[in-house]
Amino acid sequence: MVESLWIVDGVARETLLFAGVGLFLGGLDDLLVDLIFIAHRIRRGRQPPLSLATLPPPRRSGPIAVFVAAWDEVAVIGAMLSAALDRYDHDDYRIYVGLYPNDRGTIDAAARVAERDPRVRLVIGARNGPTTKADCLNTLWHALCRDDARDGRASKAIVLHDAEDVVHAHELRVFDSLIDRYEVVQLPVLPLVNSGARLVSGHYADEFAESHAKQIIVRTALGAAMPLAGTGCAIDPAMLAKIAQDRGGDPFDSTSLTEDYELGLRLAEIGARGIFARVAVDGAGTVVTVRAYFPGTMAESIRQKTRWMTGIALAGWDRTGWARPYALADHWMRMRDRRAPLGVLILAVAYLAIPVWGVSLMLHGVWGDAMPYTDRANPLATGLLIANTALLVWRLAIRMLFTGRSYGLHEAVWALPRFFVGNLVSLVAAPRAVLRYIGMLRGATPVWDKTRHEFPDLLAVPAPPGPTVFAAGNPHDPDVVTARAG
Question: What pTM value is reported for the model?
Fold first, then answer.
């Protein structure tokens, strides 16, 4: 009995210590980002907002190409294309839709829209799907190059969108203006909250509200490379051509699971200036954003987070490496990008430590033997408990604050339980990501492991609450920042 109790005590002590130290370091890492953001806003002060009314006029003319890669998107592609054509407030654009010969349903749905409007260009690749999204985008790139050569003019910008996106009416106007001054432009992404799956779909809203209103601000303000969201972004074709020249003709890496993240880092490495722009639509503070439903079920969410974790934190580490030696901010941000598997391990140990500690306490009570943690306090354990509790409260408050600014008070309250739903999704996705990564190391071919998409009823799509959304600003404003690698 004594030996068994000693083992339980040892497990409780070591798991609590491991989890406590890990959570403390992770909490300090997040707290530092928060403090830099607060200091950045105070230092910048209140700058005049960049709005549609004050947007600089384009310096040069040229068509804008919108790339939409589609595999098994019969449920959404028709509605997405129709909505884009109806919404876009721009005179010179064409939508390129990447399709696969063995995806007849998506081809037919897109063709019905293309028959009504010549601005929709269907591009059917040579290989059956699924390949990877990057491979599909390469097919679109080559189609655009052929069209530009035939028409004798160069496209001004390439805009990336997903097949389930609700585009903003004025986004092409924003891209047309800012692409003259920057080679990469990223708009905020605000996921829609599915009322029928508020906990799962809503945790994406919380994460993006914080990421696209704080973390990316800090990242770019420190001079670190800006990863792209894969949607709602515009790129100078000349920069993609430079990458394509180095890769044998393809600007997107077809072996990547997270081509958007890697593309942002690669563009920064070759000197492309990027801007994360929050452009106000009106005096109420609403901004030009991309809206879309994200997965609403645990299974779909786990699949998506598995792909993200595999592509960014595991395979991406091998593929992109680190920044140049003295780019400390970039090293820090890439480390944050890759800490997810370790963070999930620490979280799992923390969840394990709680019941083990409870069992140890119960056994000591049954056998009348005081538990070491209860009869003489451990200063380190006590200190970590207090510090981690304070950091958790701060983290939850920050999450609720940023969700409230983008979605209102009601969703801010929901952000509290969704924080733990997000943890649960990550706990399941992490081991799946490791197994998938091992498979890739053993030669498995990356494929487009996409999730099921849903297009919303546009009449029911709410605008972000005006007074609570961060005001957009000019390139010197804390909410519109530029970045160049190193």
Answer: 0.87
* DSSP per-residue codes, 204-217: HHHHHHHIIIIIHH
Residues 6 or more apart from 428 whose CB is under 8 A from it? 298, 302
Q: Which of 263, 223, 273 is nearest to 243 (CA)?
A: 263
Contacts of 344 (CB under 8 A, 6+ apart): 426, 427, 429, 430
The pairing of strands 290-293 and 189-192 is parallel
Report the alpha-carbon distance of residue 471 to residue 486 in Å, rounded: 28
Cβ burial 452-486 (10 Å sphere, 16+ → b, else e): bbbbbeeeeeeebbeebbbbbbbeebbbbbbbbbb
Residue 400 sits at φ, ψ, to 5 deg, of -65, -35
Please report where in the chains the tokens 């620490």 appear, as a residue: 346
443: left (phi over 0), alpha (psi -120 to 50) or beta: left
275: part of which helix (H) or strand (E)? strand 274-276
In whole angstroms, what is the distance from residue 190 CA to residue 289 CA? Answer: 7
Q: Where are the beta strands (DSSP E) in 16-149?
A: 64-69, 93-99, 120-124
Q: Tell me if 183 sits within 8 A of 236, measured CB to CB.
A: yes
pLDDT digits (tens, 9 = 90+) for 26-73: 999 999 999 999 998 888 766 766 788 888 899 888 999 999 999 999
Pair of tokens at residue 180: 């003259």
DSSP one-letter code for 197: G
Helix (H) or strand (E) holding 159: strand 157-161
Cis peptide before 478 (omega within 30 of 0): no
Specify the amino acid at residue 291: R
Q: What are phi and psi of 233, to 5 degrees?
A: -130, 150
**In terms of Cα–Cα distance, which of 265, 205, 154 is closest to 405?**
205
Is residue 263 within 8 A of residue 252, CB to CB? The reply is yes
Taking the C-alpha atoms of residue 244 and residue 227, their distance in angstroms, rounded to an integer, is 18
d(CA 100, CA 32): 46
User: Could you tell me where the beta strands, DSSP code E, fall in 162-222?
Assistant: 184-186, 189-192
| Structure tokens belonging to residue 309 | 């974790």
**What is the pairing mode between strands 93-99 and 64-69?**
parallel
Write the burial class of residue 5 (CB in 10 Å: 0-12 exposed, 13-18 middle, 19+ buried). middle
Specify whether the CB–CB gap between 320 and 331 falls below 8 A. no
As to burial, measured by CB atoms within 10 angstroms (0-12 exposed, 13-18 middle, 19+ buried), residue 86 is: exposed
Scan for tokens 């491991």, then name that residue.
18
CB count within 10 Å of CB 352 equals 16
Q: Which residues pair with 175 in a beta bridge?
A: none
Q: What is the CA radius of gyration of the chain?
A: 24
Cβ-Cβ contacts under 8 Å for 252 (sequence gap 6 or more): 134, 135, 137, 138, 141, 259, 263
Query: CA quadruple 282, 284, 288, 293: dihedral positive or negative?
Result: negative
pLDDT digits (tens, 9 = 90+) for 403-456: 998 899 999 999 999 999 999 999 999 999 998 888 888 888 777 777 788 888
